[in-house]
């Protein structure tokens, strides 16, 4: 049953209508795909459009591969910095590949599935903050006697400690970075760490629970996906698929529509937390999920500080939080909601950033917007206010943010993942990773997902990268111009829109762009979380990977290939820009990797360091 406003899937059978629509779309795509749609539309075989311009990507491209290791360009090297289960303190046991740890050992060690990260410095010291998005149950609870599920309360304790954020000092000795055990900066934040709830929703009835009748203090953060880094030196951990940890002890419990919109179900995704911690039991504590789905601000240099959930930045399945400072000092945060047909958001702080001043509360109050992309390459930000959304208060908008954005008819997107702002000019990019429901199914709120605009392909299996330039080069502006920087595809298999844009070739093709970050020089680094089958529609794509793009020429070159069944996610640069830290998440998630230790060892998510053999800067 199609939602209101969406034609039933089989309605458009009139050939004339389809042909007309196809022609209009073709003209439209030629205007809005920055580097051209490939052969099918423009009638040209399509090498990278670098033309006569000298390339800024001065490394030899890495071919796609299916190896169980990391591959970097000639003249570059990599090494392991930290792995799941590495103890942060010397009193912790080394990782045990048989048991894979206990609740107690996991609380003192690097969490699982590292994702977004950022590097901070305190004088000469380097401190890495790393999200631990989730745990790979089959590996985490694998080994002899393991079932891939928690079997007792200690297994749940271990699971909750496998999540959250790991903060640890790292040091470079002879060109190899490693964890500094017992550093005063080392800290584990888990699903049980006390947090302050701040901003408009603090103390609202929707956030009150039996354990916290004030609605101001919650425990823990989990499913922290991408991240942000503020100019005042704090780390932003973004709560994404927070829903999968809740379940209902009452099999007949009716799930309210407000929770259904966020994917809450009576069953969890196998984590079993409600069996050991009743706050995850929806039937008993239905407001608990209203206390997750936020951006959490953490002071990485003060292990005694209380993390702050910033409700002003909205509640949804946050991917990352890209922070820029506007000309007048107000702070702008761009954020994606990674779910099929959900939205792209922008926050503008009320207060202003002053270098060296008091900036601790800038994410406490401000305005929230959702994006509408219009045809012709224009778009605008729609304010999420009570008047515009019909929601009762600012607090409610900060809890039911998806519903607010639906009410103003923001554009349903192909799963907005990371957003990255170019440090050398006012332009912003976002990975739209894929969306098999595009043109076929509405989002969870019933909003139609029509094909068009920055989401140009039905049943989109490859993804694309949209970018926009705020009017007047001002991130505070309401209007923007947009185009598509890259439309991923497979030009070796397809000759239609699935071939992708002209800057995608058999030599650099990939699918499902996800992680995204700019290096200081203005090159864009693209990481993938896609189909690594290397067959059919994905033949020639190989393992997940990292590529570099030049925003001005559209050139895209593959820089790195990850090990089997991993996702490549998370980037950070050392202060001298001579080391690039990259996250290797869930290698062997389907049982076919022993990265990084080889032999019979279980695979372990890891942070790696990449350096140039000539000691030069990267990016
Ligand atoms: Fe955790 Fe949207 O990736
Ligand atoms: Ca991930
Ligand atoms: Ca991601
Ligand atoms: Ca993803």
Quickly describe the structure.
The protein is 11% helix and 28% strand.
Describe the structure in your own words.
With 619 residues, the chain is mainly β. The chain has a domain at 241-284. Helices cover 11% and strands 28% of the residues. It has 10 helices and 28 strands. It has helices spanning 15-32, 39-42, 103-106, 137-140, 153-162, 257-260, 273-276, 386-389, 394-399, 401-407, and strands at 76-83, 114-122, 125-132, 164-173, 176-179, 187-189, 194-198, 217-219, 224-229, 235-239, 295-298, 308-310, 322-325, 330-336, 344-352, 366-374, 378-383, 416-421, 428-432, 464-470, 479-487, 513-518, 524-528, 545-549, 556-561, 567-573, 579-585, 606-612. Strands 13-14-15-16-17-21-20-19-18 form a 9-stranded antiparallel β-sheet, with no helix packed on it. The radius of gyration is 23 Å and the shape is globular. The relative contact order is 0.15. Bound molecules: MU-OXO-diiron and calcium ion (CA) (3 copies).
Bound molecules: MU-OXO-diiron, calcium ion
Radius of gyration computed on alpha carbons: 23 Å
Distance between the termini: 49 Å
Strand arrangement, largest sheet?
Answer: 13-14-15-16-17-21-20-19-18
What's the average pLDDT? 94
Strand-residue proportion: 25-35%
Please tell me what the overall shape is.
globular
Give the tally of β-strands: 28
Low-confidence stretches: 1-19, 39-50
- What percent of the residues sit in helical stretches (DSSP H or I)? 10-25%
**Assembly level:** single chain
- How would you characterize the largest beta sheet? 9 strands, antiparallel
- Structural class from helices and strands? mainly beta
How many helices? The count is 10
């Amino acid at each position: 049953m199609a939602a209101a406003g969406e034609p039933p899937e089989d309605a458009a059978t009139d050939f004339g209508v389809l042909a007309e629509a196809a022609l209009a779309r073709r003209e439209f795509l030629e205007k809005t795909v920055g580097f051209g749609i490939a052969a099918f539309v423009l009638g040209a075989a399509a090498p990278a459009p670098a033309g006569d311009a000298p390339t800024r990507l001065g490394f030899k491209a890495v071919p796609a591969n299916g190896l169980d290791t990391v591959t970097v360009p000639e003249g570059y090297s990599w090494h392991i910095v930290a792995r799941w289960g590495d103890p942060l303190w010397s009193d912790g046991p080394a990782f045990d590949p048989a048991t894979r740890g206990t609740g107690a050992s996991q609380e003192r060690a690097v969490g699982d599935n590292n994702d977004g990260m950022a590097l901070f410095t305190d004088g000469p010291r380097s401190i890495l903050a790393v999200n631990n998005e989730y745990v790979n149950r089959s590996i985490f609870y694998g080994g002899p006697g393991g079932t891939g599920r928690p079997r007792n309360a200690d297994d749940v304790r271990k699971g909750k400690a496998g999540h959250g954020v790991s903060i640890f000092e790292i040091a470079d000795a002879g060109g190899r970075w490693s964890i500094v055990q017992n550093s005063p900066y080392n800290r584990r934040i888990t699903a049980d760490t006390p947090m302050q709830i701040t901003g408009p929703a603090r103390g609202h009835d929707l956030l009150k629970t039996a354990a916290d009748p004030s609605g101001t203090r919650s425990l823990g953060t989990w499913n922290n996906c991408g991240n942000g880094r503020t100019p005042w030196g704090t780390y932003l951990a973004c709560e994404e698929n927070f829903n999968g940890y809740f379940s209902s002890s009452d099999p007949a419990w009716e799930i309210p529509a407000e929770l259904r919109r966020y994917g809450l179900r009576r069953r969890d995704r196998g984590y079993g937390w409600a069996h050991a911690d009743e706050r995850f039991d929806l039937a008993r504590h239905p407001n608990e999920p209203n206390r997750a789905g936020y951006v959490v601000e953490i002071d990485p240099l003060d292990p005694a500080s209380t993390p702050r959930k910033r409700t002003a930045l909205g509640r949804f399945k946050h991917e990352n939080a890209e922070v820029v400072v506007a000309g007048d000092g107000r702070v702008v945060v761009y954020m994606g909601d990674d779910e099929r047909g959900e939205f792209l958001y922008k926050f503008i702080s009320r207060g202003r950033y002053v270098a060296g001043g008091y900036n601790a509360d800038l994410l406490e109050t401000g305005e929230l917007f959702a994006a509408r992309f219009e045809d012709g390459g224009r778009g605008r930000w729609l304010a999420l206010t009570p008047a515009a959304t019909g929601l009762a208060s600012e607090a409610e908008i900060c809890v039911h943010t998806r519903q607010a954005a639906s009410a103003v008819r923001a554009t349903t997107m192909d799963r907005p993942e990371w957003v990255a702002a170019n440090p050398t000019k006012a332009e912003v990019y976002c990975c739209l990773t894929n969306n098999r429901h595009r043109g076929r199914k509405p989002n969870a709120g019933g909003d139609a997902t029509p094909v068009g605009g920055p989401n140009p392909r039905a049943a989109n299996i490859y993804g694309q990268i949209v970018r926009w330039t705020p009017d007047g080069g001002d991130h505070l502006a309401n209007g923007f111009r947009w185009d598509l920087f890259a439309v991923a595809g497979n030009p070796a298999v397809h000759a239609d829109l699935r071939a992708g844009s002209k800057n995608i070739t058999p030599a650099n093709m990939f699918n499902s762009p996800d992680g995204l970050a700019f290096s200081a020089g203005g090159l864009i680094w693209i990481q993938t979380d896609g189909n690594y089958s290397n067959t059919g529609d994905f033949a020639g794509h190989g393992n997940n990977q990292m590529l570099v793009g030049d925003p001005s020429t559209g050139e895209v070159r593959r820089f790195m290939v990850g090990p089997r069944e991993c996702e490549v996610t998370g980037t950070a640069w050392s202060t001298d820009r001579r080391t690039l830290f990259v996250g290797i998440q869930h290698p062997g998630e389907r049982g076919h990797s022993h990265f990084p230790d080889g032999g019979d060892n279980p695979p372990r998510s890891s942070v790696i360091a990449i350096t140039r053999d000539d000691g030069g800067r990267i990016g």
